Amino acid sequence: MATSFFGGKNIVVIGSARGIGFELVRQLSEQGSQSILAIDRYESEDISKLVDSVDNVKFALADVRDNEALKVRFSSAESTDKKNAAGHIDLVDCLLCVSGVLGSPSPLLNRPSSEPNPSEDILNVFAINVLGTFNGIYAFQSKMPSGGKIMLMSSTMASLETATHSLNPAYSVAKAGVNMLGRKLAVELKDRDINVILMSPGVVRTEMNDGQGDISTQQSVEGILRELTRSGTSGTFLRYDGQGWPW
Ligand SMILES: NC(=O)c1ccc[n+]([C@@H]2O[C@H](COP(=O)([O-])OP(=O)(O)OC[C@H]3O[C@@H](n4cnc5c(N)ncnc54)[C@H](OP(=O)(O)O)[C@@H]3O)[C@@H](O)[C@H]2O)c1
């Protein structure tokens, strides 16, 4: 097995209170990352307990939709309060952008009367998945050195080629946007030798799908960290199990 990229590194995980993001923080903490800044818009019991039980995890509150607040907050002066660390971090070797919402499963036109217009849903899902991902990158990218990695959480549902059903349209539109965001950033960050990876985590049992996934968060995250350690090519679309996925 390849030596982990993450040992001794400084990591930021955005969207870390539960699900895949929380498991990323947990496993990275065990793998001996130097420091992990976990960010979410609420502090779950799980993340609170983890912060209390290990030395290398700090937590900061932030909503990824708030671009200004993210920027101001994470460039602010050092705080001594571990729980509300104000997010001060000088160096970010790896930035994992995980926050996301699923939105309505209903098709765009053939919808129940309770959801007559999909516009609001599209806007909300786009704001968190696409703009929120960008806002996180915007806030931290200046602290990333040459050799750094950025992971954007995508989905197989981002794929244009395999889009053969009409369900979860807002989510698919947004994740396709995440993929394009990643491709553009991969080109722009090439000169700085920062790799950008689009990751599909598999169908994972989390609150997002009411626990209806094929694999556990532990299995998904083991695969994600293995693939991020291996991956050398910026702008690629990977799956947690090492299979590529069509755009
Ligand atoms: N589970 C799967 O099968 C699957 C498959 C493909 C891709 N994904 C992607 O993987 C990522 C994690 O999903 P998950 O399954 O672990 O879902 P989850 O358990 O619902 O976790 C999503 C996390 O994102 C946070 N978040 C949502 N909106 C936010 C905001 N505005 N600001 C900050 N944080 C926010 C959530 O916090 P709140 O509780 O405050 O909302 C939560 O901690 C998502 O991007 C998802 O699209 C998941």
UniProtKB/TrEMBL annotation:
Q: Which UniProt keywords apply?
A: NADP
Leader sequence residues? none
A Pfam family per the record: adh_short
InterPro entries according to UniProt: NAD(P)-bd_dom_sf, Sc_DH/Rdtase_CS, SDR_enzymes, SDR_fam
Q: Which Gene3D superfamilies match?
A: NAD(P)-binding Rossmann-like Domain
Top-level taxon in the UniProt lineage: Eukaryota
Q: List the Gene Ontology MF annotations in alphabetical order.
A: oxidoreductase activity, acting on the CH-OH group of donors, NAD or NADP as acceptor
Coiled-coil regions, chain positions: none
Q: Does the keyword Chaperone apply?
A: no
This chain's protein is named Short-chain dehydrogenase
